[in-house]
Amino acid sequence: MTWWSKTNEEEVAMGAVLITGGGSGIGAGLAAAFHARGSQVIVAGHGRERVEGVAARHPGMEADVVDVADPEQVTALADRVGQRWPDLTTVISNAGIQHLFDFAGPGPLDAAELGREVDVNLKGVIHVANAFLPLLKAQPRSRLVNVGSGLGYVPLAAAPIYSSTKAAVHSFTIALRRQLRSSTVQIVELIPPVVVTDLHRNLDQIPPRAMELDAFVAAAMAGLDAGRDEIVVGLAKALRIFSRASPALGLKVVNQEAE
Length: 259
Ligand SMILES: NC(=O)c1ccc[n+]([C@@H]2O[C@H](COP(=O)([O-])OP(=O)(O)OC[C@H]3O[C@@H](n4cnc5c(N)ncnc54)[C@H](OP(=O)(O)O)[C@@H]3O)[C@@H](O)[C@H]2O)c1
Known about the structure:
Layout: H1 6-13, E1 16-20, H2 25-36, E2 41-45, H3 48-56, E3 62-65, H4 71-84, E4 88-93, H5 111-137, E5 142-147, H6 160-179, E6 185-191, H7 213-225, E7 230-232, H8 236-245, H9 247-256
Parallel strand pairs: 1-2, 1-4, 2-3, 4-5, 5-6, 6-7
Helix pairs in contact: 2-7, 4-5, 5-6, 8-9
């Protein structure tokens, strides 16, 4: 039996689950899946209406509002959640944004917009880890799940900041896992392929070969149940292989099609 056995997984699944960016897409899908299993779920997101709408559709689910880019707000959220749900065993750091930037244009680009993507996608993941790890470390078994992307393996040139933040999330998650290897906290990275959500609102059309949300959520839950450290779903597996075997070919493939 491994350290992270199925028995441990069931133990963890009994505790409360906090999901950032839980007001839509992947976060809302995972929230519904945990709720259906009977877990206490808290969805925390930027837009109050969105998170409250998700919670209203699932009796017993709770909503909270946070900007993950603001470390004070994240710390305040951890304080509220820790006091109300001392059995918190799963934190899913899922909030993210994606913008298209063209550095080949006349420029310069809007520095605030460039920075905001780093603040949410990378610093947000760091702030959530920093604020919630003390709560998770107090549990006999717990897990922190950072949501990366297949584009962290091979960048989509049209989304250069997004892709680089996801590469950084991958590196940060590996380092965290190493530091916490003797703790009770499992550090997980969930690595989606392109999934049909609002993330792609800045693209002209939904990217081809996008995975349906339900299928993605089922695969993610199966990976969590299996206790995997890295849950690489669907075509993200191909991008991982490209990044190791043939990065140049991977770049060609990804950049003929949007994420
Ligand atoms: N869909 C894909 O193809 C795909 C592929 C790989 C990875 N991912 C990753 O999966 C995660 C979820 O994305 P999604 O596809 O489900 O897109 P989504 O529907 O746009 O969900 C992103 C969520 O993050 C929230 N959010 C954004 N900025 C925030 C902030 N500063 N603080 C708190 N919450 C914030 C949004 O809330 P508001 O709308 O209220 O601002 C939204 O509910 C992201 O990390 C994304 O990078 C997605």
